[in-house]
Amino acid sequence: MLLVLATGYISCNVEDGVDGQNGVDGVDGEDGTDGEDGADGEDFVTEETMFSHKSPVTPLIQMSPQFGYVDAYTLMTTTDAPLGDNGFKLAGSADGAGFLKNESGDGYIYIVNCEDSYAVARIYLDENLNPVSGDYLLNSEVADYARQCSGTMWEKEIHGGSNDLFLSASEDYHYTVKGIDPRVTTPTPSADFGLDALGQFQWENAVPLPKETYSGATVIIGGDDNRDPATAMGQLILYYSQNGDDDLQNGKIYVLRLKQVSDGSGGIVDVTPDTMYDEGDIDYQTEYEVEFVEIEDGKNKTYEEMGTACLDNFASQFMRIEDVDYQKGADENARNIFFAVTGRGPNSGVTMNNWGTVYKLVLDDINPLEGKLTQIVSGNVSTEDSFKGDGELSILQSPDNLCVTENFVYIQEDPNSENRGHTAYIYQTNLNGYQPRVVMEAVVRQDLDPTNDARLRDIEYGALTDISDKIGVPDTFILAVQPHYWQDESFLSLDGHFFPDVGDGQDEDFQASQLLILKGLPR
User: Fold this and answer.
1) What is the pLDDT of residue 508?
2) I need a surface site. Which of 37, 180, 391, 438 has the fewest CB within 10 A?
3) Distance CA 478, CA 74 (A)
4) Whole-model pTM?
5) pLDDT tens-digit series, residues 326-347
6) Which whole number is the average pLDDT over 347-363?
7) Rounded to whole angstroms, how far apart are CA atoms 98 and 292?
8) CA contacts within 13 A on the Cβ side of 502
9) Cβ atoms 193, 181 nearer than 8 A
């Protein structure tokens, strides 16, 4: 059972002065006029400290007993008072994010995808992480509108080049990664930001490796959230250019292909040429050799043509690759790539992966097109196998976002069902998937939207972003939360544009978002 954490407030009494004589009773004064209720949290006043609640809505998460030493503070909620002259409010489904120091001031800039609003928000924070203003770098008026899922900040000091760039992954409806200037003075939210050279997939994230991981080259790893075998299912994508560390125009596109598979009895055999394999052909905690095969003329292919090319090249198939991240620390650590495969969920008829898996890919020291792949976490196990100290988790459901630090992997759920009997968890494991622990559970509050029959599955996490080095406080993160159950018509069009229902699920959702500061989470 998880512990409920409460925050207490203590007032300090001043020392009593010397008693004086009693005065004459005064005449009763008139009752004062009742003040007006504040709208949308306008009564709330933030403290001038970094670690304090910035929003009146309490955190929509609950730490587990093993992580009771971690403090959670609200940074922003959709219902907060409007910010700045433009009345900025955060749109729903906060997902992928990036964090920078503000070169024009003492504070910081937080960029976040608002997934189901087809938008990207920019929030300016002061030196104490108090939100002071915000705007939208992308809104749903853009021609290639899409669900903007995970995202990664390309930082010039880390990844190369002379400019920072937010890489926002487009999953549905349009299929090109968007590269957006996070420091632009005057946003053009309906402009074309497509990075066509990376190719068209159901992008879940596009993650650049540090510039010295493969010196003189640009390497970006991405996940393809495809579930359809007819279009090659999910691919692990690699964009590779040897024309410098910031070439986003002239590289080549590759997808992962197994070189070895299981023999069905716990052993390893070489693959049969021109044969399609999927993740059902490999065993848990077994290492296999893999390669990346080129998709010729990939940047000029349509989404449908890309799927055909993956099939023609016998690219290995995964049931919906979600987030991708790499180990932090030394540049060579970044050759350790981790990716989550969310699975299809129960009763789907899919046998290769129902509950989800997490993989570790170790790239070759010299050639990023070669490596070794291991499944380090799996939810496709029986109850009696769970929590033996390894990554077999019978409680795991639909791993989605990942955050990899120098020492740990944080796995964030997006439940596809309610069959596990709990809301979305975040787990911590070591870099090999061992020692799994539940860090927190998302909270479903019926009182926030009493008219909505909220279910356990109706909440998930967005990005977990390590901000420790930039603010100078170790073990500090920002976590995005997506309470899908919290809906209100006032949450529509917060990006400045109303997106009409055009059919086939293409409409703007009216959900809330919440951002949290986590203090003390080990990295």
Assistant:
1) 77
2) 37
3) 10
4) 0.90
5) 999 999 999 999 999 999 887 7
6) 88
7) 28
8) 9
9) no
